[in-house]
Amino acid sequence: MILQQLPTDLAQLLSLNQRSLYAFIRGQVRTREDADDVYQETTVVLVEQYNPAEPPGNFFAWACGIAWRKVLVEYRNRSRLKLLANEELGRILAEKVAASVAWVSPRIDRLQECIASLKTESRDIIEGFYFREESVTQIAARLGVSEPCVYKTLTKIRRTLLDCIERKLREDD
Amino acid sequence: MSLSQLDRERIDQLLTALYDGRLDEAESARLLDWLEEPEAQDLFASHAMLDAFLSMACADPQGIAPLKPAVQGSVDAQPAEKGGPDDRATSPVPGFLGNLTQLGGSSMPTLWTLLVLISGMVPTLALVIVLAIRGIRVEVNQPELAGSSEQGARSKRPQTADTKTPPRLADAPHRDAKSSGAASSPASAPARLVYAKDCTGTASRPAPGLARPCPSGRR
Fold it and tell me: Would an 8 Å CB–CB cutoff place B65 in contact with chain A?
């Protein structure tokens, strides 16, 4: 699908929300391939259902809702479904994730800076888990540590990064 | 109910396991209980958000250079054949020549060309000497040829020589030049993989491992 062939306003909305929408999906699925598939399917639905006469009030929230349902389909046979089978809870979580994504999306540069400030070991774990898509088991085996150790380390790194982002935002203000 | 720091850590680890696709039923049920709390829901959201942006930050083409061959010439991307350019890595000669070129300021192809020319001239010169000696012996041992048809004898000499020398012997150094001499040219330098850059754009290094083991405990 070529963006230029879409209605101008939809093309603009998709372009504006592309990164945030992808981030929303990426936070729910484990691999880039899955995220790409869900994103593509979501975009198709958005194009099909978009009505220029009655555009959604909040395009991003609408798009996230569609993406969320695609994620659920993606994970129908996986353990995550049991957690998200509670529709009401699923809706709440989706809304919160969408709000978080919308909030942090313009600040991703800060995250890059914070990643850069991590120690080499921490960065290696983060890159292994998120970029090379290694499982916790694989990382633990590679580093010769226990899995709980990797879990704890990831938690610490994540907290460090969030603190770093907040600190940098305060500095900006 | 406010979550304690321990609770938050526990939830965070459960969410990591969830993202990793390793959450079992019991853990899933426990997490579901937690997520009744708005605070835990916020944790879930921030966790998912950070998962997303870390994945994207690390995969961002602006931050990560894909694995690619080090480009030093136009044909660098071509895989090196066995016995070809890559083999020079095990040979002491290129290193030696490399040192020479550094000292002399000359380029590797020039030195290689010189070496090939010299190595090619040696058998050629030997061949000429052998032919000359054999020619003298023919003239000495077969005077009738010289006497009957000097021109014919002369015309036979090269043929005799040709049958005793490998055909196109002089080509051999040139073939060598292709497999060894040309190997040093920048255009045929081997394709070498470089480390992918990390999220920060710097080349990543092999993991040194954790300096100390974490205290044991369930995640």
Answer: no
CA angle A23/A44/A40 to nearest 5° reads 40
pLDDT, tens digit, for every residue of B63-87? 333 323 333 333 333 333 333 333 3
Q: How many helices (H) and strands (E) does chain B have?
A: 8, 0
B193 - beta bridge partners? B69
Question: Does B22 contact chain A (CB < 8 Å)?
Answer: yes
Taking the CA of residue A5 and the nearest CA in chain B, the distance in Å comes to 26
Q: Do A115 and B57 touch (CB under 8 A)?
A: yes
Write the single-letter amino acid at B118. Answer: I
CATH number given to A118-173: 1.10.10.10
| CB within 8 Å: A79 and B21 | yes
One-letter identity of residue B154: R
Residues of A in contact with B209 (CB under 8 A): 121, 143-145
Q: How far apart are CA B45 and CA A97, in angstroms?
A: 4
Q: Inspect the interface and report whether the beta carbons of A155 and B25 lie closer than 8 Å.
A: no
Q: What is the dihedral of CA A170, B1, B4, B6, to 10 degrees?
A: -120
Q: Tell me the chain B residues in contact with residue A105 when contact means C-beta distances shorter than 8 Å.
A: 53
**Mind listing the pLDDT tens digit for each residue in A88-141?**
777 788 888 888 777 766 677 788 888 889 999 999 999 899 888 899 999 999
Structure tokens at A38: 């869900």
Which long-range contacts link B2-9 to residues 24+ away (Cβ below 8 Å)?
A: B2/B39, B3/B37, B3/B39, B3/B40, B3/B43, B7/B34, B8/B43, B9/A152, B9/A155
From the list B18, B32, B207, which residue is nearest A142 (CB)?
Answer: B207
Smallest CA–CA distance, residue A52 to chain B, in Å, is 30
Q: What is the DSSP string of A111-170?
A: HHHHHHTS-HHHHHHHIIIIIS---HHHHHHHHT--HHHHHHHHHHHHHHHHHHHHHHHH
pTM, 2 dp = 0.52
Tracing tokens 């030997």 back to the chain, one arrives at B126
The answer, for B212 touching chain A at a CB cutoff of 8 Å, is no
Structure letter (DSSP) for residue A5: G
Say which amino acid occupies A162.
Answer: L
What the block records as the tokens of A15 is 């372009």
Amino acid at A115: I
Query: Pick from A71, A126, A64, A70: which is nearest to A97 by CA?
Result: A64
